[in-house]
C-alpha cells in the first residue's frame, strides 16, 4: 500500500490531540486549584515512575536503530533526562518537584507510592519501545507535539493555584518547555522521513495512540486512588 502524502500523514497524527492527557479530569482539577496536597503528592510520586523510565525507553529505541545519524540525535534525550553527572537532568528536577510538594527523596526513589496501574502502563511503554521497530518507537513519543502548550498552562496553574510550592520545584517544567518544541519538530521530521509505506504510517499513528493511552492510564490510576475517579 502506497504511503499517503506527508501533509495527510501529519494531519492523521495531529488528529490524536484530543486523546492527549491535557483533558483528563485529574489535570483539569489540578489546573483549577482543586487538588489537595495529598493528591499532588500522589501525582508527583507516580509521575516520577514515568520520568525515571523515559531514559530506558529512549535507550531501547536507540539500541534498535541501525542509523548512526539517528542514534547521535536520539542519545541527547537520554542525557537530558539522566544528566551527565549525579544531581543533574530532568529526572533529578522531577525529584525536586516531588520534594517541593512535601515528599522526601527517599520515598520517591523507593517508589512506595507508585500504584499498580501506573507501573503496569509505564512498563508496557518501555516494553513497546524494546520490541517495536525503531521508527514506531520514536513515533510513540510524538505526544511532544501536544505537550508544550500543556506544560506552559500547568506551570502557570501550579504557580497561581498552589503558591506554597517553592519556585525551585518548577525547574523540570521551565527547562522542559524550552526543549520540547525543538524535540517535537525533530521527532516528527524523523517519523515522516522514515515511514515509507502506508503500513509504516499506520503503525506510527497506532503508536502515538498507544502512548496517549499510557499517559491517561497513569492519571486514571492516580485519579481513582484519590477517590474522585470512577471504578
TrEMBL record:
Q: Where is the Thiaminase-2/PQQC domain?
A: 13-220
Alphabetically ordered keywords of this record: Oxidoreductase, PQQ biosynthesis
Top EC group: oxidoreductase
Q: Name one GO biological process term.
A: pyrroloquinoline quinone biosynthetic process
- Kindly give the HAMAP family that the UniProt entry links to this protein: PQQ_syn_PqqC
**Annotated function:** Ring cyclization and eight-electron oxidation of 3a-(2-amino-2-carboxyethyl)-4,5-dioxo-4,5,6,7,8,9-hexahydroquinoline-7,9-dicarboxylic-acid to PQQ.
Can you name this protein? Pyrroloquinoline-quinone synthase
Amino acid at each position: 500500500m502506497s504511503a499517503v502524502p506527508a501533509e495527510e500523514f501529519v494531519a492523521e497524527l495531529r488528529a490524536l490531540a484530543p486523546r492527549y492527557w491535557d483533558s483528563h479530569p485529574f489535570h483539569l482539577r489540578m489546573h483549577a486549584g482543586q487538588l489537595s496536597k495529598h493528591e499532588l503528592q500522589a501525582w508527583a510520586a507516580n509521575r516520577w515512575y514515568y520520568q525515571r523510565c523515559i531514559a530506558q525507553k529512549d535507550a531501547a529505541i536507540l539500541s534498535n536503530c541501525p542509523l548512526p545519524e539517528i542514534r547521535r540525535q536520539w542519545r541527547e534525550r537520554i542525557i537530558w533526562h539522566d544528566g551527565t553527572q549525579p544531581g543533574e537532568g530532568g529526572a533529578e528536577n522531577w525529584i525536586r518537584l516531588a520534594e517541593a510538594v512535601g515528599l522526601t527523596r527517599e520515598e520517591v526513589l523507593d517508589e512506595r507510592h507508585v500504584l499498580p496501574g501506573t507501573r503496569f502502563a509505564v512498563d508496557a511503554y518501555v516494553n513497546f519501545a524494546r520490541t517495536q521497530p525503531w521508527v514506531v518507537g520514536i513515533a510513540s513519543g510524538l505526544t511532544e507535539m501536544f505537550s508544550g502548550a500543556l506544560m506552559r498552562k500547568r506551570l502557570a496553574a501550579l504557580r497561581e493555584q498552589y503558591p506554597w510550592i517553592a519556585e525551585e520545584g518548577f525547574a523540570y517544567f521551565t527547562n522542559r518547555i524550552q526543549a520540547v518544541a525543538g524535540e517535537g519538530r525533530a521527532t516528527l521530521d524523523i517519523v515522516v522521513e522514515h515511514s515509507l509505506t502506508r503500513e509504516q504510517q499506520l503503525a506510527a499513528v497506532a503508536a502515538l495512540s498507544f502512548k496517549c493511552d499510557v499517559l491517561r492510564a497513569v492519571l486514571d490510576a492516580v485519579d481513582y486512588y484519590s477517590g474522585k475517579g470512577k471504578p
